[in-house]
Amino acid sequence: MRSMTGYGTSQSKNRQLEVEVHVKSVNGRFLEVRFHLPKEYSPFENDLRRVFSGWERGTVDVYVHRRPGAEVRMQTVHIREKNARHWSVQLKKLAKELKVSQDLSLRDILQMPFVMEHQDRLSLLPGELKFVETQLRKAADKCQEFRAREGGMLQNELLAQLKDLEAATKSMEGGRAESMAGLEQRLKSRLSTLATEHLDAAKLALETALMIDKMDVREEIVRLTEHIRACRDLIDDGEAKGKKLDFYCQELLREVNTIGSKAQLAALTQVVVQAKSVIEKFREQVQNIE
Q1: How far is CA 32 from each of CA 60, 86, 100, 158, rounded to the nearest angstrom?
Q2: Comparing 274 with 118, which gets the higher pLDDT?
Q3: Is the separation of the CB atoms in 64 and 117 below 8 Å?
Q4: Are 116 and 104 in contact, with CB atoms under 8 Å apart?
Q5: DSSP code at position 53
């Protein structure tokens, strides 16, 4: 089981290049990978996206920083010698015409327009894309390790909450038995008062059955127990899917709400409230599961 929350980073450099990658993951209904890349890597986003092909859910932000080494940066400076000669001639000519000192230096010429140009290095270095992908995989693996650790803690919390819900279900079974016993006593008392009246036996039997069905929560408790078992199986196998567990949360709450609507005892109603509280906590944690 993995959480959807995680973080991983990787950094490596050589004489020509330094690459730093950060992978941050938070909750999301579906898998959404958002890349924040230098312009040199933008054409290769789809190639890098394959690193996350095995991920199920979560909003993932990927930050990649590229820092060329000093050797590479020197290669991006271009001197236009023709333009430098042009400016040298023109400046000397101007100084002569104005009859001023020809205090002209190389720095002056380099500062003239179109003499020294800094060019962005758009082309990748040999093997650079593979280098970047390696760092991305390392950062993604670290993020997955983080998510797995978080998932282990979530697993323990979810199992503890299911245990609390099982205890509440057993209390509901006891409350049901007490409620049905009370119903039986009320029916006997009611029938004794009607003993002297002319009664339609079939109609009386039907009304009695409807009353029992309206108050009996046996079927809801059975389904609730089954849903709890299914949730436990999903969690225990280590490959629990957040979407499936979220569906079971809805079913758990549906059954408990139905039991609450049928409850005739204050004690049973109290247990229902406790069970709903446990389910809400369970559902909050499920929202973090991949």
Answers
A1: 6, 55, 67, 26
A2: 274
A3: no
A4: no
A5: T
Alpha carbon distance 43, 40 (integer Å)? 7
Residue-by-residue DSSP string for 179-201 = HHHHHHHHHHHHHHHTTTS---H
Nearest C-alpha neighbor of 279 from the set 184, 167, 130, 161: 161
Which domains, ranges and CATH numbers included, belong to the chain?
77-118 (no CATH), 148-286 (1.20.140)
What is the distance between the alpha carbons of residues 128 and 90, in angstroms, rounded to a whole number? 44
Give the pair of three-digit tokens for residue 179. Answer: 């409620």
Provide the pairing of β-strand 58-68 with 116-118: unpaired
Model pLDDT for residues 3-31, shown as the tens digit of each residue: 999 999 999 988 888 999 999 999 998 99
Task: Give 114's DSSP letter.
Answer: T
- Token pair for residue 168? 């509440």
pLDDT band of residue 254 (cuts 50, 70, 90) is very high
* Chain-centre distance for alpha carbon 266: 40
Pairing type for strands 58-68 and 6-13 reads unpaired
Per-residue pLDDT tens digits for 169-210? 988 887 666 666 566 566 656 656 555 555 555 555 555 555
